[in-house]
Amino acid sequence: MFRKSRIIIFFTIIFICVPIIAGSGENCFSILAGRTTTRDGAVYFAHNEDDPLPQIVNFIKVPHLTHLTGEVITLKNGGSLPQVKETAAFTWFQMPGEEFADSYMNEYGVTISSNQCQSRVEESDLTDGGIGYWLRRLMAERAHTAREAVEIGGKLVERFGYHSSGRTYSVADTKEAWLFSVVRGRFWIARRVPDDQVAVIANCYTIGEINLSDTANYLGNPAVISYAIKNGWYNPKEDGAFNFRKIYSAPRSSYSIRNLARWWRGVTVLSGKNWDLKKNLPFSFFPARKLGVLDLANLLRDHFENSQFETPVTFNHGNPHANYVKRICSDTTQYGFVAQLRPELPVDMGAILWLAPRRPCIQPFVPVYCGIQAFPHGFARKSFDDAIASQFTPDPARYTATSDLAYWSFFEKAMRVDADYGKKIQAIRHQRNQVEKTLMQAVPGFEKKAIKLLKKDREKGRNALTRFSAIGLKELLKLNR
After folding, report:
1. Cys-Cys crosslink for 27: which of 33, 50, 53, 58, Cβ 3.0 to 4.6 Å?
2. How does the average pLDDT of the chain come out, rounded?
3. How many degrees, rounded to 5, is the angle at CA 139 between CA 163 and CA 73?
4. Is the pLDDT of residue 5 over 60?
5. Long-range contacts: 289-293, Cβ < 8 Å, 24+?
């Protein structure tokens, strides 16, 4: 049963106290780990999606689709382009009404999410209103690899122009990971994360010096340099090497402690070195040890424990989430995931989204296989075609708590725990860890059987992956009762 009076009170507090946070765009957090940095040789992509309340999240599986000749996609602001003959199946974490919050893993293991990054570009060079929401969705629908996704995205930005201030899209597959940064207009740059290094990003650009002649590791619109020269932001004779982060970042975003602290924390924890916040942080770095799912999951749960930014246990009932210096796991976190992208297995099974809805510090990360056919009943309010059709349709009832949508049980539990965090979190952690341990121990045995099914009959194998994924997802609901 939902505690509706507490939800109403909670929303009232949020609307009074959160305007500064909501307008900042300084919330999300991502980690990309190259394949030789991990214990199993997988590429890892971890992400916390942060957006100000009110929100809901639908967890949806979209099938592989064949489209009619002449079918057209209409972008949010009015632009259009021809639909391709076939689009990939994908897992979709949808946040209705939000233009820049959805995450995807498609049937080829290509996984995409993003972090807002404010740029200094104010002029809008756009065609038909530009592109925003549809950029990552088209990448997910059409790309077979992370690199191809970046190339598709880059062409779309150059064709329509990006209508928001700026953003960095994290894109990964079973072989490599990229950071793809865009600014308002038609300029973009992308850099590959080295196989033996890890990259961390909060909400400011991290790509520094670039070398577009090295096409194995850099992609981009060459005009990004000439445009900076034209505007007087960059003088090759006086400024030395072109530095994208330095030249294109909005200063208030680039140097905000609300961004730098999370970037610094991720680099410090994973490298095992105490980096100086006052000095330039690296685009990528060598981790202190080989990484696994829990290493990244635990970082997504981080509140700056044992650092100068740690919240005193006596403050606000021990609740670490609502602070000016944003935590990695914060008051606005809507979901966290760790994509484990293993190259040696069929992608249906080799690519896993370990999902923790709403609050990673409270919820266990449970496995959702790439090859699933559907999420359990109640994890989405609408079918996939209705969901995209109504993405931006105003709906006053959208944020009304109901028992038929799983998101509200995750929301309610986060609210209950935050109200007395210091006293409740130890028991919550114990319960959370037990569920994770049980599921992680069950995975190897399950996969030995599932791989045989997949090779013999892909449809039966996918059904098995769907059933196993449902076990963890339903366990999440049991924990929140």
Report:
1. 50
2. 93
3. 70
4. no
5. 290/37, 290/38, 290/39, 291/33, 291/37, 291/38, 291/39, 291/44, 291/198, 292/38, 292/39, 292/40, 293/44, 293/338, 293/340, 293/354, 293/365, 293/440
pLDDT digits (tens, 9 = 90+) for 367-382: 999 999 999 999 999 9
Helix (H) or strand (E) holding 197: none
Q: How far apart are CA 221 and CA 182, in angstroms?
A: 10
Query: How far is C-alpha 300 from the geometric centre of its chain's CA atoms?
Result: 11
Which residues neighbour 478 within 8 Å (Cβ) at sequence distance 6 or greater? none
Taking phi over 0 as left and psi of -120 to 50 as alpha, with beta for the rest, 316 belongs to left
Query: How many angstroms separate the CA atoms of 25 and 50, rounded?
Result: 9
Average pLDDT estimate for 21-35: 75
> Which amino acid type is present at position 89?
A
Q: Tokens representing 396? A: 């006053």
Whether the Cβ atoms of residue 387 and residue 56 lie closer than 8 Å to each other: no
- pLDDT over 70 (residue 119): yes
Q: How confident is the model at residue 3 (pLDDT cuts 50, 70, 90)?
A: very low
Paired strand residues for 166: 183
If phi over 0 gives left and psi between -120 and 50 gives alpha, with beta otherwise, what is residue 186?
alpha
Closest of 182, 194, 195, 98 to residue 139, by C-alpha: 182
| The CATH fold of domain 4-479 | Penicillin V Acylase; Chain A (3.60.60)
Query: What is the rounded CA–CA span in Å between residue 190 and residue 270?
Result: 23
Q: Which long-range contacts (CB under 8 A, 24 or more apart) does 413-417 make?
A: 413/358, 413/359, 413/362, 413/363, 413/479, 413/480, 414/358, 414/359, 414/362, 415/6, 415/7, 415/10, 416/3, 416/6, 417/359, 417/362
Higher pLDDT, 10 or 336: 336
Strands 366-369 and 351-357, by their bridges, are antiparallel
Provide the pLDDT for residue 396.
84
Residue 26 is predicted with a pLDDT of 60
Q: What are phi and psi of 351, to 5 degrees?
A: -100, 120
With pLDDT > 70 as the criterion, what percentage of the chain qualifies?
Answer: 95
Please report the pLDDT score of residue 481 as a whole number: 81
With 0-12 / 13-18 / 19 or more C-beta atoms within 10 angstroms meaning exposed / middle / buried, residue 440 is: middle
Structure tokens at 118: 């404010």
| Strand, helix or coil for residue 192 | strand
Closest CA to 187 of 224, 216, 132, 149: 224
C-alpha closest to that of 210 among 243, 181, 178, 177: 243
